[in-house]
Amino acid sequence: MNEDKLKGSLDQVKGEAKEQWGKATNDRSTETEGKLDKVKGKVQEGIGKIRES
Question: Comparing C-alpha atoms, which of 48, 50, 52 is closest to residue 9?
Answer without folding.
Answer: 48
